[in-house]
Amino acid sequence: MNVTHRKSRRGRILVATALGTTLLGVGAVATAMAGETSPASRAPAAPASPKSATTAAEPTGGLIVGYKSKAQEARSAKAVRKDIGAKAAQTGEKLSYERRLGNGAALVSLGGVRPAKDVTKLMDRFRADPDVAYAVPDRQVPTPALESPRDPARSSEPSGDTDRFSEQWNLFEPTGGMNVPDAWRTSTGQGVTVAVLDTGITKHSDLAVNTVAGNDFLTDTFQAKDGDGRDSDPSDPGDATKPGECGGKGSRSSWHGTHVAGIVAAADDGKGIVGVAPGAKAQPVRVLGRCATPDSDIIDAITWASGGTVADVPDNPTPARVINMSLGQEGVCTPPMQLAVDQAVQRGTTVVVAAGNRGNLPEPQDAGNFDYASCDNVITVAATDREGNRAEYSNFGNAVDISAPGGELLTSKNPKNGILSTVNSGEDGPVSESFEFEEGTSQAAPQIAGLAALMIAANPALTPAQVESAIKENARPLPGTCEGGCGAGLADAAKTVASVSKGAAPPAAGSPSSPPSDSSSASPSSPSSPPSSPSPSAGTGQAADGKDLSACLKNTCEVEVTSGDTIKLDGTAGVDEFTVVSVADNALTFTASSGNGAQQSSGSQTSPGRSTINDLVVDLISIDGDRAIIRLS
Fold first, then answer.
1. What is the mean pLDDT of residues 375-388?
2. Cα(44)–Cα(254) distance, rounded to whole angstroms?
3. Mean pLDDT, rounded, for 333-353
4. Which of 60-82 are b and which e, b meaning 16 or more Cβ less than 10 Å from the residue's Cβ?
């Protein structure tokens, strides 16, 4: 078999002996914290018909409560405290208001971990209130290190100057690979941020130049294991546990977030590995720590990563166009989860989720039985092995949208049949950078997140719905077998990027070279127009000078504009009319008026960047000549 080499990489090979698995390479999820009420205008209405469990399956210490839009509690922290106080008096429980979550729901403390039957009674009490849309447990989700490695002999390989690209079969092999090198002829993901909601990140030379500032959303200091709670440092201190902690035998640190980040955006620097989107930026958002973490922190992290506002957390300076969530557990997609996802999609962010790794149990699991994997408006990813079969551990079913290489270590007995990426050599805390072969839907999902970044860089006007549609429409049939359903097939990066490209410029200097003529991947097909169906939740439109862009009427849209364009808004963000004065010299100049023009403000923004007028957020995504892509939210 011919291996595709890129001219910028050296040809030395280091044989890897590392074996391993991870979070949704073997398991788990999330976190929470305490903050305060967000402004009333940022407490959106809860879903009218929530999808939630009627009983609590396990003990928990908190509830997530969504109030209906007409209720005072949907807008006022004082009203929430009053309501919770009344319910505490009625039940004799020590209930208290923790904070408003980024999606507008209220986090309620139960005064300590309560038995499942007591949690169910409290949920019933809230649900009986006509002003309450839903009440669900703030579940504690196990984190990656708690999931025992499928091969206890797994080990990491030192870093260094060795080129490992030829071991990344998942990128280029004609049978089980994703045909990525040919996609690099058109796009490397330059200018796109991919948020990696995971364990955080460790220092690694393959990631250093392709990482932007993130945030740590863990609120419990024991779970955080870094001496504090929520802060701006997403560094991964390790998630190892000692015997007896978390009710287990003890485990080494997983470095799960570092592995996932490398799959997405490791740099093409002639050594180590290369990510699916080596021109993109990975944004580490820490939501996983020691033992377990609550759902509420993941909800806040989704909000923040996509450019939304979270109480007591500075706004994200580089909102992600793509979120990767290689995490999850058995259960339903609850109303607050779905609301957070929907709001992210409305901001223009594509959300990619791992399908889960319970496909090889005595009772194999459908991805529809896993929380985030079963949410609407996400791209749910199953895993395949090197021969293009559904990996034996991978979940399956109608909830799966697409498949990508996840590797197969246990049945093949070959460490190189896993997915190679960046990790750390430390058993507990970080020691030195290294590499490791791992397996799982945790490894499959970030390859789709990287593909989404390639697509968006080639065509910044794509909506999340268009991204999903193009990935599925351009997939190829699985070369192997899949029982139970593996979505549209195996993703084909080159074909997908070509289908949405608008004549994108060649990769920038320093990006992966075009593969040589003996490439094992097919050349990309001719570019064509992107899918025509816009996202139902995020307006999009082509500007015409001076004309109303009605896609923006609800204050959330992404559009292409030029000088003289006027966008009518509904005024809820304090702006009734947004006018583009000029687009030139990589800068956008604009005016905003309210009160029938009585109040007017002006401003300018260089690309890329963000401005705020009253409560209207203006993200300038890119400028091409006299045209600009902007997102209003």
1. 97
2. 36
3. 97
4. bbbbbbbbbeebebbbbbebbee
Q: Parallel, antiparallel, or unpaired: how do β-strands 566-568 and 577-584 relate?
A: antiparallel
Helices 464-473 and 441-458 pack at an angle, to 10 degrees, of 110
What distance in Å separates the CA atoms of residue 530 and residue 469, rounded to the nearest whole number?
Answer: 9
CB 115 within 8 A of CB 123: no
Identify whether 198 is a catalytic site residue: yes
pLDDT per residue as tens digits for the range 257-301:
999 999 999 999 999 999 999 999 999 999 999 988 899 999 999
For 126-171, write each residue's pLDDT tens digit.
999 999 999 999 988 777 644 433 443 445 677 667 899 999 999 9
Taking the C-alpha atoms of residue 620 and residue 633, their distance in angstroms, rounded to an integer, is: 12
Give the amino acid at 383: A
Taking the C-alpha atoms of residue 337 and residue 179, their distance in angstroms, rounded to an integer, is 33
* 3-class SS letters over 459-500: CCCCCHHHHHHHHHHCCECCCCCCCCCCCCCECCHHHHHHHH
**How far is residue 214's CA from residue 230's CA, in Å, rounded to a whole number?**
12
Give the mean model confidence (pLDDT) for residues 504-520. 36
Query: For residues 600 and 214, what is the distance between their CA atoms, to the nearest angstrom?
Result: 34
**What pLDDT score was predicted for residue 364?**
80
Report the Cα 453 to chain-centroid distance in Å: 12
CB 538 within 8 A of CB 347: yes
Residues 156, 256, 469, 535: which is the catalytic one? 256
Is the pLDDT at 356 greater than 60? The verdict is: yes
Token duo for residue 94: 């020590």
Instruction: Determine the pLDDT at residue 363.
Output: 77
Give me the catalytic one of 198, 239, 401, 576: 198
Task: Determine the pLDDT at residue 567.
Answer: 86
Residue with structure tokens 């009585």?
A: 598
pTM of the predicted protein model: 0.74
The tokens of 98 are what? 């923790």
Neighbour count for residue 147 (Cβ, 10 Å): 22
The active-site residue out of 326, 442, 469, 535 is 442
Edge-to-edge strands, sheet with 193-198 = 215-216, 281-286, 193-198, 322-325, 350-354, 379-384, 402-405
C-alpha to C-alpha distance for 501 and 454, rounded to whole angstroms = 10
> φ, ψ for residue 497 (rounded to 5)?
-65, -40
Within 150-203, strands assigned E span 157-158, 193-198
pLDDT-based confidence at residue 181 (cuts at 50, 70, 90):
very high
Q: What is the dihedral of CA 618, 188, 476, 469, to 10 degrees?
A: 10
DSSP one-letter code for 415? G
For residue 155, the model assigns a pLDDT of 55
What is the separation, in whole angstroms, between the first and last Cα of the chain? 50
